[in-house]
Amino acid sequence: MALIPPTHSFTAPRRMARLAGDRTILHIDMDAFFASIEQAVNPALVGKPIAVIGSKKRTVIVTSSYEARKKGVKTGMTAGEGMRACPDLILVPGNNRRYIDASVRILAIMRDYSPDVEVFSIDEAFVDVTGSLRLFGGAERIAREIKRRISEDLNITCSVGVAPNKLVAKLVSGLKKPDGLTIVTQDEVGPLMDGMPIEEICGIGSRLGKVLKGLGIVTCGDLGRYPVSVLKGKFGVTGERLHYMALGVDETPIVPIGQEDAAKSIGHSMTFPYDVDDQQGMHRYLLLLSAKVGRRVRKAHCSGRTIYLYVRFSDFTGLGRRHTLPKPIRLDLDIYHAAADVLSTIEIPLPVRLLGVSMTNLVYSGSQLPLLSGERREFLLAHAVDDIKDRYGDDILSQAEASDWSQEAGVISPAWRPQGTRRVDPK
Question: Catalytic: 124?
Answer without folding.
Answer: yes
